Amino acid sequence: MTNRNRHRTKGWSLAKGPVALIGLALLAYGVTALIFGGHSFAQHAPTGAVYGKTWLGLEVNGWTGLLFTAAGLLLLFGAPMHWGAKTMSLIVGTALVVLCLISLANGHGALGIFAANGLTELVWGAAGGLLIILSMLPRVGRRTGHIDERPATTRSTRRVESEPRPVAPVSDTSDERYDTSVQSH
After folding, report:
1. Which tens digit of pLDDT belongs to each residue from 158-169?
2. Is 155 a domain residue?
3. Is residue 175 in some structural domain?
């Protein structure tokens, strides 16, 4: 059968919706943290301790607010397509988990740029872990249906011809290009 006779459904993406919601939450928190939380862009890179203000329980400075905003925007831009949602989810999730681990090892803040307390580290780790899990979700409900109603044969692959075709009479011909000749019997 040709592709014209089939109707394919790609299925539903399990990653697109949750990735968009997490992106929206991160974007909203990042913007509000920049407005109402820490405005300072002070840094002590690469290993210094960084302090910020507390906004909704999380310690943030300007860089932490930008981190949340950028992570949310990346997730929202990737969310409309299945492969984009999964790719951005893996990238942002890995970055958040790495920042969580660095902040835990450093004691206060990450990379001397991002201010973080225990709750900020918990949010980074939980969001990053969830995003990594979401990056592994497949599509569900994929179907291929046939438009015509004839059942497909699955048992035999033999080809049956209805009647033999008549053979045209062969005459004496020759082809000088190939120095061959065909003779009738």
Report:
1. 666 666 666 666
2. no
3. no
